[in-house]
Amino acid sequence: MEKMQQIVGRARAAFRSGRSRPLEFRIQQLKALQRMVQEKEKEILAAIKADLNKCGYNAYSHEILGVLGELALTMEKLPSWAAPQPVKKNLLTMRDEAYINYEPLGVVLVIGAWNYPFVLVMQPLIGAIAAGNAVVVKPSEVSENTARLVAELLPQYLDKDLYAVVTGGVPETTELLTQRFDHILYTGNSAVGKIVMAAAAKHLTPVTLELGGKSPCYIDKDCDLAVACRRITWGKYMNCGQTCIAPDYILCDPSIQSKVVENIKATLKEFYGEDVKSSPDYERIVNQRHFKRILGLLEGQKIALGGETDEASRFIAPTILTDVSPESKVMEEEIFGPVLPIVTVKSVEEAIEFINLREKPLALYVFSNNKQLIRRMIAETSSGGMTANDVIMHSVLPELPFGGVGHSGMGAYHGRHSFQTFSHHRACLVKDLRWDVVNRVRYPPGSEEIMQLAKLFLLKHCNRSRVGQFISALLAAVKALVAKVSLGLCCPCGCVLPALSPEPLLTLHHPIPLSSAPSLEDSSLFLCLSRCCAPIERGDGQPALGPTARSLQSYR
Amino acid sequence: METGTVFPQLPESQAKRAPEGDGGKGSVDGDTMSRSPFAGLVSYLRASWLSGKTRPMEYRVAQLEALGRFLDDNKQQILDATASDLGKAPFETELSEILLCKNELHETLNNLSRWMKDEKVDRTLAMQLDSAFIRKDPYGVVLIIAPWNYPIQLFLVPLIGAIAAGNCVIVKPSEVSKKTERLVAEALPSYLDKDCFAVVTGGVQETTRLLENKFDYIFFTGSPSVGRIVMTAAAKHLTPVTLELGGKNPCYVSDTCDVTNVARRVAWGRFFNAGQTCIAPDYLLCTLEMQEKLLPALQKAINDFYGPNPRESPDFGRIVSDKQFQRVQRLLSSGRVAIGGQTDEAERYIAPTVLVDVQPSDPIMQEEVFGPILPIVIIANVDEAIDFINSRERPLAVYAFSSDDKVVNQVLERTSSGGFCGNDTLMHVTLPSLPFGGIGNSGLGTHHGKFSFDTFSHPRGCLKRGMGRESLNAPRYPPYSQRKFGLIQATSKVTRRSDCTLL
To answer: Do A388 and B463 touch (CB under 8 A)?
Structure first.
C-alpha cells in the first residue's frame, strides 16, 4: 500500500517540478529510450523468447520494429503535434487570441498485456512521455521475464522519478488502482477493463481501454482465395493466435468452405513445414491455464485440420473447425489461440447481421474483389478498426488510430493519436483588456437592439451570407477609419493600423501573400485591424499564432 | 455544478414515466437488465440504429433542422419556462439558451458534410497503392443527462453533436428546472423522429434505473459526485463517457490592469444567471491594494448593470430551488460582506454580493459557490496565486487579468484547467471552434462544434488493400530466414529516413 503511494507520490512530485514539460526534455527521454532498445536488443529478444517462445525474427518484427518506428515518428513530429493550434474566431473575439494548447495530464498509468509484452508497454509509454507526463508502467506478470527486464532497464535510461515501473500480479495492480492517476491506459480483457474503469471512476480518471473481442473475417465468393487464405493464415497463427486483432473466426458461403480449408492447409505447410511442432517460427501458448481453456473450446467440434496438442510444451497445432454452430462455446469467447472456426453464411446480408448481433469487435476483415461489397461492409457494421483484403495491417499504420469500440474498448492510440490521448486539449482565449465598448452588447441592462447586435457578433462566423460579410467588412472599415483618424499610423504596406498596437511598427507588415481567395478574413483591412491579436499568416486559411501562443511555443 | 442536486425530488409531470418497478433494489447487473423499466425503450432505439436509418447525412440534416424549428417555434415558451424556473432575464435566455444553440446548430449544419468525410491519412511506402482512412462511425444509442442551470443549452448542444454523428439519443433533462423539463418532454418529441430519439424524465430513481441499461455513449453534465456514479455505472457496460463537471474557477487579477474593465467583465461573468454557471469565476485572487481599487469598481459595475436595487432589475436572475437557496445563503457567513448581501427567501433572491476577508479555510472556499457571491482571497503576488490554484482540484476554467501579457502567460503556463480565458470571463465557451471540457475533478472529454461531433463518433481506422502484389508480402511470412530478417531491418531503416525526406 505504502509502496504504491510512494511510487505514485514521487512521480507526481517530479511532474509538479515541471521538468517533464519542455519539448527538449521529452525528446531527450525518447532518445534515451531509443538507445535502450538498440543497446539491449539481445536481452529483450531473449526475454520474449523465454516468455512466449518467440523466435528472434518474430520478436524483432512484432515488438522491436514497432517501438523503433513509433520512436522515430514521435521524435520527428512532436514539435508540430505539441504546437498550440489556433482556431477560428467570431466577430466578438476577432481581436483576441484563441487556440488549443496541448498540455500534459499529469501521472499516467500504463498497464501492459503479456501477448506482446514489450511493445504493448512501450508504445503507450512513448506517447505518454511525448505528451509530457510522468508515467507508472505495470507490465504483465504473466510474461515475467520481459516484465523483469523492463523494470531493470527503464531506470537505467530514463528519469527515475518521472517514469517508474511496478511489477506484480493482481494484488499489486489492485493496490495500484486505488491511487489517483490522471489517465489510465489498460490493455487486456473486457472483464478486467470493467474493473479498471470502475476504479478510475472513483477519481474521475479518464481511461483508454484496449480490449479484445471476436474479430470476424468475411470471405466473399468473389475473391482470390489463395491470396486471401495466405494472409489470413499469417495473421491468425502468428504468435500462436495470441493477438488481440487476429481474425477470430471466418464467415463464408458454404460452397467455398472446403476450399478455404485446403488453401489454409497448403499455406501452413509452406509457412511451417510438414511438422509444425518442430518449426522454429511457431510459438506456444503462454501458460497452462490458457492451454486448458483453448482445449475446452475444441470439445464437440468438427476438426477439419490440426487439433494435435502437447500439454508439456503447451503446443497446439494450427487448427480449423468447420460448420461451427453460432451457439457453440468457441463462438462465445475470444479464442486467443491457434483455432480458426468457420461459420457458414448464405449472403453478405447474413454476415452483416451475424456481426451486428454480437459485441462490437476490435477489428473487422473482409476479402472481396467487389469494392461495393467492401464499402457496404464498412458502412453497415461497427468495429474498432478494419482492414479489407488483408489482416492486422491497419494497426501497422501509425496514422490510423488504434482502439476498440463498445466491448472491444474505448479511446485510441498510436502515433499522433497517442499524443492526443495523453494530452489535455485546453481551450485558451486571451483577450485584450481594452475595447470594452465592444463588450457593451453583452452587459445588462439588456434591450432588443443590443440583442440584435449580440446576434450579429456571435453568429457572424457561421453566417456565410454575403450580407453578413458585408456588414462585418463595413464594421471593420469604420473601426479602421477611427483608428487612422485618432492616430494616423500606417503600416509600411499602406494599410491602416489599429491605434495602441502593442507590437512595434515594423512587425506590422503582413508576412503573407493575399493571393488566396479574397474572403473577409484575408482582406488586408481585416488583417491590420486584428494585427495586435492574431492575424492570418498561413496561406491555408488557418489563423496564425498571436504573441501569447508564440511565447508558449518558444517556452516549449 | 454543485453537489447533490442533480437528481433530487420527483417532478409532478413526466413524459415517459417509469412504471413502478421493484424500487431499484435489484442489482445493476447485466442479468437484471431485462427487468429495467427502460430496457424496452433502449432496445427499441438500438434496433432503429442498427437499421442504419440515422446514418445518411440527409437524415441527420433533417433532424438538425427540426431542432432549429423547435427553437424557433418555442422561443416564447422557452423564455417563459426559464423565467419561471430561474428568473432568467429574457436577454440572458436569448443569449445563452437560444443564440448559442443556434450558433452551434449552424456551425454543425455548415460543416457536417466536411466532418463526416473519411479522413485520409498518410501511408507507408509499402502501402502506397492502398487506401487508408479514418471513418467517423456513430456509436449507437447515446444517453444525455442534462443539468438545470442552462436547461435548454446543456441538453441541446450535446444533442446536436449526437445527432450530427448519426446516433440515436435518449435525453434526460433535469427535474429541478420543472417548467423547462415539461416543455422539453412535451414539445421536443414532436419535432424529432420518435424511432430514434426519446425524452425520459424523472429524478434519482429513474436515472438510476436508466443507467442500468447498456448505452454506447453517456454524456453527463452535473456534479463530480454524481459524475463518479455515472462513470461507475458506465464501467459495467464498458460505455465511454464525457463528464462535464464543475469546480471552483479561480480568477486572478494582477496589480497592473484597467480596474473598471476588470470589474465589469468579472461582475458580468459572476452574476450572469445569478451565478449559476459552471464556468463562472468562483473567487477572486488579488493583493490587498487591488482589492481596495476593485471594490468601488465592482460596486459601480453592479450598479450599472442592475441598478441601485438589483431585486427590481429584470436582468438579474433567481436561485433555482429552495434547497439551493439555503445552501447559497449559508455561504454568506464566510468573511465579511462588502457589497450586497441582501436575501429574500420567498423569491429565492440573493443580491449580487462581494465578500472580503475570506480565509481559504472558510466554507465558501470548500465548495463550488454556484450563486451570485464573489469571495475575494488576498494573496501577496502572482506566485502565491499560482500556488493557491495548484494546491486545489483542477478547475473547469482559470481566468487571469493583467495588462501585462507576461503575467497572463505565466498563469496560463503554470496552472492546469479545462479551459483558460485571459482578460475576460466566460467568453472562451462562446467559440464553437474551441473544445469545452474539464480535467481532473472538473470532468473528462470535450464538446462544442466539431468536438461534439468527434465525441459522439468512433474514429475507425480503415485500410483497404489490393489483392494483388502478393510478392510484396513475402518478407512477413514464415518460414523466416536470415535473409528476410535483413530485408525487414533494411526496409524499416529506409522507412524511418523516408519519414522526413518523402513526406
So the answer is: yes
Cα-based angle B170, B176, B179 (whole degrees, multiple of 5): 85
Cell of B107: 456551425
The C-alpha atoms of residue B295 and residue B292 are separated, in whole angstroms, by 6
pTM: 0.87
| Residue A146 DSSP SS3 | helix
Integer Cα distance of A339 and A240 in angstroms: 9
A21, three cell numbers: 514539460
> Residue A60's pLDDT is what?
87
* Tens-digit pLDDT profile for residues B20-75: 333 333 333 444 444 678 999 999 999 999 999 999 999 999 999 999 999 999 99
Q: Tell me if A141 sits within 8 A of A169, measured CB to CB.
A: yes
**What ipTM does the predicted assembly reach?**
0.89
Contacts of B430 (CB under 8 A, 6+ apart): A90, A92, A93, A458, B100, B103
Catalytic residues of A, by residue number, are: 210, 244
Q: How far apart are CA A472 and CA A464, in angstroms?
A: 11
Catalytic residues of B, by residue number, are 244, 278
pLDDT of the residue at A477: 62
Contact flag A445-B465 (C-beta cutoff 8 Å): no
Q: How many CB atoms lie within 10 A of CB B93?
A: 24
Minimal Cα–Cα distance from A384 to chain B, Å?
6
Report the residue of B101, B133, B463, B496 to disrupt the A interface, i.e. the one with the largest count of A CBs within 10 Å: B463
- Residues of chain B short of pLDDT 50, as ranges, are 1-34, 493-503
Could A454 and B95 be called an inter-chain contact, meaning their C-beta atoms sit closer than 8 Å?
Answer: yes
Name the residue in chain A with its Cα closest to that of B429: A427
> Given an 8 Å threshold on Cβ–Cβ distance, is A282 in contact with B228?
no
- B379-407 residue pLDDT tens: 999 999 999 999 999 999 999 999 999 99
**b/e map A163-187, b = 16+ CB within 10 Å:** bbbbbbeeeebebbbebbbbbbbbb
3 state SS of B138: strand
Q: What's the mean pLDDT in A149-155?
A: 97
- DSSP labels for A423-443? EEEEEEEE--SS-HHHHGGGS
Q: Is the dihedral of CA B318, B320, B326, B328 positive or negative?
A: negative
What's the full length of chain B, in residues? 503
A525 Cβ partners below 8 Å, 6+ apart?
Answer: A473, A476, A477, A480, A495, A496
| Residue A384 clears pLDDT 60, i.e. is over it | yes
Nearest in space to B139 (alpha carbons), one of B79, B204, B50, B58: B50
Q: How would you class A448 by CB atoms within 10 Å of its CB: exposed for 0-12, middle for 13-18, buried for 19 or more?
A: exposed
Nearest CA in chain A to B50: A356
Q: Left if phi > 0, otherwise alpha if psi is -120 to 50, otherwise beta: which for B111?
A: alpha
Query: What pLDDT is recorded for position B157?
Result: 96
Q: In angstroms, what CA-CA distances link A191 with A143, B130, B236?
A: 19, 36, 9
Residues A232, A264: contact at Cβ < 8 Å?
Answer: yes
Q: In CATH, what class is B5-245+450-457?
A: alpha beta
Say how many Å lie between the first and final Cα of chain A, rounded. 36
Domain B250-437 in this protein, CATH class: alpha beta
Q: Where are the domains positioned within chain B?
A: 5-245+450-457, 250-437
